[in-house]
């Protein structure tokens, strides 16, 4: 490069004051760009971490809510086996419709009779 541009050769041996100022400005600009990139990348990582934490917490809350709702629905619709129609498995006896006994209760008021 120096053979191609011989007028650059004097800057290498004895830099002038203008060359030193330009070099200092370029170094400051490079440092500023590096700081902006590092801070910007750190900011992006911070936002990504916050979003990941929000996602994990949100999924945990959603899972807890759905399990709670499922437990409530089970509790609301719970009925023992053979509660209404007497249909149970073969391992429980006494609930078959032909084995049921209908009991009528009559209350007699003794005060009315006397």
Could you write a compact summary of the structure shown?
This protein is mainly alpha-helical and 114 residues long. The protein has helices spanning 9-13, 17-76, 110-113.
Please explain how this structure is put together.
- The protein has three helices and no strands.
- The model has no long low-confidence stretch (mean pLDDT 80).
- Helices cover 61% and strands 0% of the residues.
- With 114 residues, the chain is mostly helical.
- It has helices at residues 9-13, 17-76, 110-113.
- The protein is rod-shaped and about 135 Å long.
Number of helices: 3
Q: What number is the mean pLDDT?
A: 80
Count of distinct strands: 0
Largest sheet features = none
The first-to-last residue Cα distance is 133 Å
Whole-angstrom Rg:
44 Å
User: In terms of structural class, how would the helical and strand content be classed?
Assistant: mainly alpha
What keywords describe this structure?
single chain, 114 residues, mainly alpha, 3 helices, rod-shaped
Topology summary:
Blueprint: H1 9-13, H2 17-76, H3 110-113
């Amino acid at each position: 490069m120096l053979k191609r541009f011989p007028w650059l050769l004097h800057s290498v041996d004895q830099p002038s004051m203008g060359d030193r100022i330009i070099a200092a400005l370029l170094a400051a600009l490079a440092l500023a760009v590096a700081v902006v990139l590092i801070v910007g990348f750190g900011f992006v990582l911070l936002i990504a971490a916050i979003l990941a934490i929000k996602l994990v917490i949100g999924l945990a809350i959603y899972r807890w809510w759905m399990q709670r709702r499922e437990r409530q629905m089970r509790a609301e619709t719970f009925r023992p086996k053979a509660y209404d129609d007497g249909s149970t498995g073969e391992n429980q006896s006494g609930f078959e419709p032909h084995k049921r006994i209908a009991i009528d209760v009559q209350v007699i008021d003794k005060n009315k009779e006397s």
